[in-house]
């Protein structure tokens, strides 16, 4: 894409405007009185400087567009008040090109209504002052053409800018989608490799023994199955310390369930280590029969909830009946106070 430096456009606009000022000063002697033309030159210079002054905002402010429009209306009245429409005025009609340049700048800065009103008033004033033929002789048609070109370019550039933003957004979304797919694929491969590493020795042993396993070996298989399930459902809840304490808890006969639903994915490494260290301590110190660990929602101040349940006599007839032995809420931030009940 070919781009033009903004400072170069400003310099070109300033040079064109300065050229009109030079013509106006050069032709002061043709006017019956030079003072209205001097006032017009001052107004035009002020409007041009304000319009070309570099700002971060491309669109011209409403007050400045109104000021430029007012200058474009006053300029012809001041200059032509001291000129003879039937005489050969030469460069004394510099105001026509000056108004065209000012309105072109206004259009380029996306104030199209003010720009078209300015050249429309210029055309009407020229017809009233010198007749319809003056539109071509004075250069009014050229000023209208320049505003029209600025209008088309501004509209085209605005449309191109919108399309560029749309394509950029689509590219970012596509890149994010591709990154997510790659991450899912990588994670799947890692989990498959981890599962294979854990399960392959036991599966070979089962095949070698023809499925005839001792009770100890069956317990080992159940423990291994639970560990594989942790790798799938536990995700970010797993560290070496958590794995070790969960394995010890299961060796003590505790049923442990880890459920990571994405609630701690946004935590940085230090915060996650703090949360999971607290989780490992809670599992190590629990004497419950069942432990359920679940991540909270991302919007919650709680990162992980740990619930320990103890079987009661009522639970032998109804499995849903159990006494809460441990309730621990580990906060996302260290300044928050966790709520624990044992």
Q: How would you characterize this protein structure?
A:
The mean pLDDT is 83. This protein has helices at 6-26, 34-52, 62-80, 94-108, 112-130, 134-137, 140-208, 215-233, 240-251, 269-285, and strands at residues 255-259, 290-295, 302-310, 323-331, 340-341. With 342 residues, the protein is of the alpha+beta class. Helix 3 (62-80) runs parallel beside helix 5 (112-130), helix 4 runs parallel beside helix 7 and helix 5 runs antiparallel to helix 7. The protein has 10 helices and 5 strands, in the order H-H-H-H-H-H-H-H-H-E-H-E-E-E-E. Helices cover 63% and strands 9% of the residues. Helix 10 (269-285) links the parallel strand 1 and strand 2.
Keywords:
342 residues; 10 helices; 9% strand; 63% helix; alpha+beta; 5-stranded mixed sheet
Write the SSE topology:
Blueprint: H1 6-26, H2 34-52, H3 62-80, H4 94-108, H5 112-130, H6 134-137, H7 140-208, H8 215-233, H9 240-251, E1 255-259, H10 269-285, E2 290-295, E3 302-310, E4 323-331, E5 340-341
Parallel strand pairs: 1-2
Antiparallel strand pairs: 2-3, 3-4, 4-5
Helix pairs in contact: 1-2, 1-4, 2-3, 2-4, 3-4, 3-5, 4-5, 4-7, 5-7, 7-8, 9-10
